UniProtKB/TrEMBL annotation:
Lineage, opening ranks: Bacteria, Bacillati, Actinomycetota, Actinomycetes, Kitasatosporales
InterPro entries: NTF2-like_dom_sf, SnoaL-like
Record protein name field: Nuclear transport factor 2 family protein
One matching Pfam family: SnoaL_2
Residue ranges of every copy of the SnoaL-like domain listed in the record: 8-111
Organism: Streptomyces pactum
């Protein structure tokens, strides 16, 4: 497994954690202490804020999990990959996007820039 694939695997472990203690550990394993996550709706820094953003997503989409689409592509300390938010009951995927991550020397994520390619319609 490449350093990029390993970092992305830890990223998905964090995004799919729903227990608060498991989530806190997964975020610490995936991100540096001052790591960031930015997408069109969220701009957070540090383990606590990242964990809170993930928990908020699970509150909004209970019964869904994040799954990687395609493969991870990386060079230098940068990688990109696609993902979907998939219902564990019916397989629907109302949200999809792609992320770009920058890795620190220890292999953890320094920053994430998220892009949303598909979002559910708003009422």
């Amino acid at each position: 497994m490449t350093q990029y694939a390993a970092a992305v695997a830890r990223y998905f472990e964090a995004w799919n954690a729903t227990d608060p203690e498991v989530l806190a550990k997964a975020v610490a394993d995936a991100w540096t202490e001052d790591g960031t996550y930015t997408d069109p709706f969220t701009d957070v820094r540090g383990h606590e804020q990242i964990a809170s953003a993930i928990a908020g997503t699970h509150a909004q989409f209970p019964g869904y999990e994040f799954r990687q689409t395609g493969t991870t592509d990386g060079h230098h300390a940068v990688a990109r990959f696609g993902w979907e938010l998939v219902s564990t009951t019916d397989g629907s995927a109302p949200v999809a996007g792609s992320d770009v991550i920058v890795l620190a020397e220890d292999g953890r994520i320094r920053s994430v820039l998220g892009f949303l390619d598909r979002v559910p319609p708003t009422a």
